[in-house]
Amino acid sequence: MRHDRLLRTSTAEGRLRGSLEDGVFVFRGVPYASPPVGALRWQPPKPVKPWQGERDATAWGNASWQNREYCLAVGGGDPGNFSEDCLYLNVWTPDLEPARPLPVMVWIHGGGYAMGAGGLAPYNGLPLASRGVVIVTINYRLGHMGFFAHPALDKEYPAGEVVNNFALLDQIAALQWVQRNIASFGGDSSNVTLFGESSGARSVLSLFASPLAAGLFHKGIAQSAYTLPDVPRQKALNTGVRLASHFGLEQATAEQLRELPADAFWQLDSSLANGPVAIAGDCVLPEPMLSVFTAAKQLKLPLMIGSNSDEASVLSYFGVDPAKVIAGVRQTQRIGLRLKMIRMMYDGVYDDSELGRQVARDMTFTTMGYIAALAQHRNGMPAWRYYFDYVSENARDLYVNGTWHGNEIPYTLDTLDAFGDEKSDRPFTDNDRAFAKKVSDYWLSFARDASAFSHQIEGEINWPAWRPWEDKVMRFGVKGQAVLKLEKRFMRRRTQLFRLLMKGMVRLND
Q1: Which residue ranges form the domains of the chain, and what is each CATH number?
Q2: Is the pTM of this model over 0.70?
Q3: What are the tens digits of pLDDT across the range 381-392?
């Protein structure tokens, strides 16, 4: 009877009925803002209209419009139904009435800001929730619905208050919902960890850089965030004008833009889009994220950050050709010095394609961890850097270059078993599951205990906070094997050099 009663809980907006799964209470498809449809397209998220009676919370909410086939192939599975009405979240909690409020972890899915959903199998919150935390996953506006600029829309805002990063505002609205309501799910609103992968990790760092996110979360984890520069607002405006012209709207009004069908956008050529980064210069992100971190002006909160050993697996999606990276070095170097320096740091790698693969990986992903950790040190906040290089035992012949972009997720979220028959030809092993427990232990320890005053994260090996003179990095796996290892000065020369060179060598295609 207690469980049946606890399938129901009350929020500020109304009463919810969830389900009980393997001892964890699950609430799906909970609205955290009003549907951004019609006149609310390209508007900041508006409050949910309270409902009467009991709302069913046992089915996933809609995902934002996207390419289903692409998400099935590389995004983690089927994102479900598509709609502009997509501002929903999901909650997993082990106890709605705990003796003490539980740590909260809010997951932002990746997908280049163009695909994905919070209900995908790799993001199942049940395994971590069963170990004593409250997990929240969210859907948010993607693609043109999430990031868009046009002069006609600018006219709707007072000077200095223009919004272009609607997806980031959606994430902020979800965090506001957490602050209002998470106590009703047993969560501690004063201990909220924001974490995500790829564009989800970029979102974490962007919210570290946004003045509008202050006070809504208390620490962050960025998995495989990338160094690609944010889009300047003027460039985004120009893209918006070209997009309107594509639809025959040479002098588009805001009303005409909002009348365009939602499913017409995701099919457009990438030259008419702004992703896979945010737009710098609106009220949500006044300065580019990288500029904020370079100046050490990000929110003063603890941060864990890292990347994988074969991030180059995704670089084509970002418009980066590894071989062209080295060609670009040749064209811009002075008397061969730069290329010689790079070759010295990649001893034994002579093929341009392989060298470019490793250089692009480190410049686009590994160096982001160094930049962020250095910024954290400069503003007096702890940071922890990691490098993920474990490959599941039955797939090591497939991943000969290491851990692909995103392949760490089922280890950090402990969701190896959530894939079901999808991996049946190469099933995860007990050793894979044991390693996932070790990895996710660190994520849980960070969520439970990390604060501005922490010096380490406890685990099988105590993981000290990063300091520039030691530059200790936790290695989760070494050459695919299940090894936990702290390494001093990890890729130090590379990351120091690339921090200086990356603006000229890694960029989005124009």
Answers
A1: 11-506 (3.40.50.1820)
A2: yes
A3: 999 999 999 999
